[in-house]
Amino acid sequence: MADEDYLPLPEDADRILVVVAHPDDMEYGGAGAVARWTSQGKQVAYLLVTRGEAGIDTMRPDECARVREAEQRAACAVVGVSVCEFLDHPDGLVEYSVALRRDIAAAIRRHRPQLVVTGNHRESWDVEGRYLNQADHVAVGRAVIDAVRDAANRWIFPGVGGDRWDGVQGVALSGSPWARHAVDISEHVEASIASLVAHERYLAALSGPMADPAVFLREAAEEAGERLPGSTAAATFELLHP
Question: Which InterPro entries match (predicted)?
Answer without folding.
Answer: GlcNAc_PI_deacetylase-related, LmbE-like_dom_sf
